[in-house]
Write a structure and sequence with these properties.
The protein contains 11 helices and 7 strands. It is an alpha/beta fold. The protein folds into 2 domains: 7-43, no CATH class; 46-231, Alpha-Beta Horseshoe (Leucine-rich repeat, LRR (right-handed beta-alpha superhelix)), CATH 3.80.10. Helix 4 packs parallel to helix 6 (88-101), helix 6 (88-101) runs parallel beside helix 8 (126-132) and helix 8 (126-132) packs parallel to helix 9. This is F-box domain-containing protein.
């Protein structure tokens, strides 16, 4: 009997994940090498987590499972995730993320989008920018960052600017952050999502000759009036 991996449409594996309990499916993957070789690329292709415990659990797996790490194409480890008052979970996540990102050699899309409810928790998010200082992702094309815009975030974008096709850049706490935006060269960028506060600065400074879609994210503090809309380039 052949144990070679077979090509199975993603929709089938998606259905298997729905019908089979996740623990049972993971147990099967660890017991059967042939099933692991076939299923793991589908199970780990698109990952998104809205809580820190689930993100940390997956990051630990990706740190030790090479097949899983190389299978990740779309990765949103912090997806509209509330920052907890205690920083322990954030600290562990920050320790694991650069190690995991260095292993995800096929990563195409990355999103880091925490949600904060106070300036105290917002301060923790600057550490995500510091973490990005260590990272280079060769195949990165789609990037979404809801982070304070500091030198680390700017440098991360600059390192990947020639490969980016979609970029979302949103201020974490509009009206409270200082930021700088240098000239970016984004020749292949097609879609751009920006917080309203930085639209004019970004468009004035950056080269985006092929952009086809621009979305402006209005914060609750900003009234989207006709005058405000006309002031945009």
């Amino acid at each position: 009997m052949s144990t070679a991996p077979i090509a199975v449409p993603f929709e089938i594996w998606d259905r298997i994940c729905i019908l089979t309990s996740i623990p049972a499916l993971y147990n099967t993957c660890t017991v059967s090498k042939s099933f692991n070789a076939v299923a793991t690329p589908h199970l780990y292709r698109n990952l998104s987590f809205s809580t820190f415990p689930s993100a940390i659990k997956c990051l630990r797996t990706l740190q030790t499972n090479e097949i899983a790490a190389k299978s990740v194409v779309c990765f949103h480890p912090i997806h509209h995730t509330p920052i907890p008052p205690c920083g322990a979970a954030v600290t562990e996540c920050l320790e694991l993320l650069p190690k995991v990102l260095s292993r995800t050699s096929n990563l195409y899309e990355l999103g880091i989008a925490p949600v904060v409810w106070s300036l105290d928790t917002a301060a923790l998010c600057t550490d995500f920018g510091t973490m990005l200082r260590q990272c280079t992702i060769p195949r990165l094309a789609n990037l979404v960052l809801n982070l304070p815009i500091d030198d680390n975030v700017v440098d991360f974008i600059a390192r990947h600017q020639l490969g980016l096709v979609e970029l979302g850049l949103h201020l974490l706490v509009p009206g409270t952050e200082s930021y700088r935006l240098p000239t970016f060269d984004l020749p292949f960028l097609r879609k751009l999502d920006l917080s309203a506060e930085i639209v004019a600065t970004f468009l004035a400074a950056s080269a985006i000759p092929n952009v086809a879609e621009i979305n402006v994210m209005w914060s609750p503090r900003i009234e989207a009036t006709h005058n405000a809309a006309r002031s945009l380039p």
